[in-house]
Amino acid sequence: MALRGRRRASAAQVYELCSLLLRYPDAGPAGAEAELRAAVAELPRGGARAALERFLAWWEETEPLARAEHYVEAVDLNKRSGLYLTFYSDGDKRERGATLVRLKQLYRAAGLPLEGTELPDYLPVMLEFAAAAPAGRGEIVLRENRASLELVRSGLRDLGSPYAYLLDAVCAALGEPSVAERSLAGRLAAAGPPQELVGLEPFAPPEVMPGSGARR
Questions:
Q1: 213 domain-assigned
Q2: Each residue's pLDDT expressed in tens, for the chain with a length of 216 residues
Q3: Based on the structure, what is the number of domains in the chain?
Q4: CB 91 within 8 A of CB 78
Q5: Angle of the 47-61 helix axis to the 163-174 helix axis, nearest 10
Q6: 97 is a domain residue
Q7: In whole angstroms, what is the distance from residue 149 CA to residue 168 CA?
Q8: How buried is 55 (Cβ within 10 angstroms: 0-12 exposed, 13-18 middle, 19+ buried)?
């Protein structure tokens, strides 16, 4: 396999693993530590593999209830490290709604339409798409939201959360951010999270709104 093909394959594996591990830590990954370790061991040595190994070390030594409590505190309830990436860049309801529609169209055009009730800017969904989309097209959504990725990573680091390791792995697979991406991340961080509008009225068009069921 050519070098570019090997890099793409290893990046796809990183995205797939992080998509799984960034979701709420319910019964899904529990009991699959050996399989997860084996998958990480298949990755080439480097920053992404090292970051995943550090995360799994925390995962294996932490009780399930403590994992869940930490996730809720660090991810679900923290506006600086939530996983809905367009929240950081599109605070206006109308602008964010248009972005979500575009993401759904992008997934459909790649032959991977969004299923379930989750919004298309939920990072595990983006990572799942990045891992599966053909010809490297999946990384488009990650690169377009690189500034938000960096912001979430910074927020998790500030909390001392092991989930920052997963963002480290994703960013290592993507490669170094551009000057423009770093600059935008700095501006987003300085501005702070947009005013929370969810709950006042639907913040996206009906075709992209999730169902009434809870995510978990």
A1: no
A2: 455 667 788 999 999 999 999 999 875 566 688 899 999 999 999 999 999 999 999 999 999 999 999 999 999 999 889 999 998 888 666 778 889 999 999 999 988 999 888 999 999 999 999 999 987 778 889 998 998 999 899 999 999 999 999 999 999 999 887 777 777 777 777 776 565 444 333 333 334 333 434 443
A3: 1
A4: no
A5: 160
A6: yes
A7: 10
A8: buried
pTM assigned to the model: 0.83
The residue behind tokens 């591990």 is: 21
Structure tokens, 191: 């501005």
CB atoms inside a 10 Å sphere around CB 179: 8
DSSP state of 136: G
Q: Which two tokens stand for residue 48?
A: 């992404």
Which amino acid is present at 213? G
When computed from its CA atoms, the radius of gyration of the chain, rounded to whole angstroms, is: 17
Question: What is the residue range of 90's domain?
Answer: 3-196
Residue whose C-alpha is closest to residue 89's, from 178, 194, 209, 176: 194
* Position 75 in a domain: yes
